[in-house]
Every structure is written in C-alpha cells, then in structure tokens.
Design goal:
This protein is mainly alpha-helical. 79% of the residues lie in helices and 0% in strands.
Length: 223
C-alpha cells in the first residue's frame, strides 16, 4: 500500500496546489448559488480527476509497463518529454508574471460564474480537473503506479490517494465556506486576490519542480 501511495504522492500534491481551480471554486463560493455550486464544482473536480488518472493507469497497466522492457523504455521517454515540456512552460510562466505592484485584471470567465447553474458548475469542475497540467501529472502518476506492479487493491488505494490529495484544497475551501461564515469569506477573498496576482509565479515553480522530477525519472536517476 505504501509503495502505491508513494508512486502518486508527489504528482497528487502538484494537482492539489494548482491556483486556477482554487480561484475558480472560491469564485463559485461568492456566486448567487454558492451553497449549491461550490459542492457541485467539487463533485465535478473529483469525478474528472478520477476518470483521468484511472484511465491513464489502466492503459499503462494494459501495456505491462511494470514488466515489459520495451514499455518501460517508452514510459521513460514519455516522462522525459513531459518533464522538458513542464520546464519550458515554467520559463514562459516566469517571464510573463506581473510586477508586484501591477493591477492584474480579473479573468474574464470569472465574471460569468454568478450566472452558472449547478450542472454548469459541475461541468466546469470536471473540465478544470482535466486541464493540460493535470493531464501531464495524472499521466505521470498513472504510469508510475503501473510500474510498481501493484495488486488490484493496492492500485485502488493509490488511485484513491491521488484523487483525495489532488482534491484536498478545493474540498477545504468548500467546507470552510460552509462552516466558517463571514470570516471565512473574507479570508477566501484575500486568497483569491493573492492567487490571481501570483498565479504565474506559483505555476512557474510548480512546473519547474515537477518537470525536474519527471526528467530525473525519465533519465533513470530516481529509482
């Protein structure tokens, strides 16, 4: 069990601390239907993340990446490519980050959140769960999990751990809003403003860290 969780842990953390879904769920919590849309967004996020990582794992397991030398080589090249893409994206994000004193406009899609129904909130959660960065991290997690050749029970635990950890901050924001009252709303609004301003810098650091991890795994430097 510990090996299965360890295989996905780092990548799940990378999914969990993504600024955009956190900004999105906080926006939901300030909408006219916050009590419904916040939980609906969380459900969509959990479902989307579960589908992405489960499909990735099943495909990797079907290809016998844990036992086939050719499949293992293919996974190494895949991780190396994903890592280089993330490192490149880190550089772009860092160059495009706003100055500390800059006025950062609110994302245009956020203005539409007030008019979303529960179904649209659920769909937005699922869509953001499958964003390109999450797809790369889920792909890395699924293939790494398959490489440890777990039993069915261990695989289920590993996949569940990925989804729970990857959903933790979004879930905490929803629960905090439901039980924290006006104090919670004030702190969530501060968090949203900070994340909007520093989104590019946070993403640059995330991309660089996980890009380096994937490059190291692709080169066989982490065993």
């Amino acid at each position: 069990m510990a090996q299965a969780i360890g295989a996905v842990l780092a990548f799940a953390v990378g999914v969990g601390i993504s600024p955009i879904p956190i900004i999105a769920v906080i926006a939901m919590l300030f909408s006219n239907r916050a009590r419904v849309n916040g939980p609906a967004f969380l459900v969509g996020w959990v479902v989307g993340l579960s589908v992405v990582v489960t499909v990735t794992y099943l495909v990797a397991d079907r290809l016998d990446v844990g036992t086939s030398d050719s499949a293992t080589d293919g996974v190494s090249w895949l991780k190396l490519g994903l890592g280089l893409l993330l490192v490149s994206a880190a550089g772009r994000k860092w160059r495009n980050r706003p100055r500390p004193d800059a006025e950062v406009p609110m994302p245009t899609w956020m203005a539409k959140v007030d008019h979303l129904g529960p179904g649209a909130a659920l769909g937005l959660g699922a869509l953001l769960a499958a964003n390109p960065k999450n797809l790369m991290l889920a792909l890395a997690a699924g293939t790494t999990l398959a490489q440890v050749a777990p039993t069915t029970a261990e695989a289920v635990v590993g996949l569940a751990a990925f989804v729970v950890i990857g959903s933790s901050i979004v879930a905490v924001a929803v629960i905090y809003d439901l039980v924290g009252g006006e104090k919670a709303r004030a702190r969530l609004d501060d968090a949203r403003s900070w994340l909007i301003l520093h989104n590019n810098a946070v993403m640059a650091v995330l991309f660089l860290v996980f890009g380096a991890v994937l490059v190291a795994e692709g080169l066989g430097l982490r065993r």
